[in-house]
Amino acid sequence: MTAAFTPPADEPLTSKEGWSRWVQHDPRPPELHLDWPHLSPVEQAAYDDARLDYHSDLIVVNTPTIQEVVKTVRRLLILNRRQISARRGLIITGGAGTGKTTAITQLGRAHELSVALRNPVTGPRIPVVYVTVPPAATPRMLAVEFARFLGMPLASRSNITDVTNAVCAVLCDVGCDLVLVDEIHNLNLATRAGAEASDQLKYFSERIPATFVYSGINVERANLFTGTRGEQIASRFATIATRPFAYGTTVQRENWRALVATLEQALRLHRHKAGTLARHGEYLYQRSRGMIGSLSHLIRGAAIDAILDGTEKITKAHLDAIRLDHAAETVTPTPSPARHRRQRPGAA
């Protein structure tokens, strides 16, 4: 389990500086001081602030979905080593809030750390690129996103060919072998702009010797697999679907309780008793709709309140006081029947 990290506003994950800072972030939680009641007011404030900052981070759990994504892409990276063209890729698809971005970024982080461990080099190296598809993206907009990640200066008169060639040359030089493209649902192959942007991504995949991984909301509904272009994507990309955790069978309920227990173990509170949240498993499921992101927000928010009010433990009142996203507050999940027990639970 790791704690996520948000780079400064001027260094988002879609820049090499922000991405590198996030990958190298040390997620270790702060230690609890046994003598905390005897700290001076200044020391207490600093101590509490460190714990508040820790709980403000999104706690990422190594869910079965993340494990499957990492395992699948590691295999693809090896299979694609000798491929000159038509490299195989992966698409992560699912509903909003089911953990697609978490899965894709954790994949990139794991790969970059693995590359650094296996092949320590002194020269410039960028093994992973992470970009998002802008709304109503055009081919040039996509090319600019890649250039922006690399920090390449672009002249106002640079045409798409210039930008594309420069991006491909740099990524080949720095040894990029994994390209992560998020928000792929913004490409609509039924429109001319979407079709041309899709062609631009395909061109990048032919020029850059890397494995491409896409992530988006219910990509099947975004016409990503329709028409000639869609058929080509479907023939080259496998898919992994992210879903909320289910709660209909005994095994599913046990998996949910284990998830709650994992998040509970990450808390840094002095009076909280282990197992307290597990006893509220059904309540937490109903509040979060089985979404690990909503569950994490609920628990971390309650922990923050417990520090601020001095109780140092999460109570039902703390949980009741946390407002979640609109979808979680307005939709009551229906426990999945036993025949769905093999569906993959989502990530944070």
Automatic annotation (TrEMBL):
InterPro entries noted in UniProt: AAA+_ATPase, P-loop_NTPase, TniB
Pfam families assigned to the protein according to its UniProt record, in alphabetical order: TniB
Domain AAA+ ATPase: 86-334
Segments of skewed composition (Basic residues): 338-348
Region named Disordered: 1-24, 328-348
Protein name listed in UniProt: TniB family NTP-binding protein
Organism of origin: Micromonospora rubida
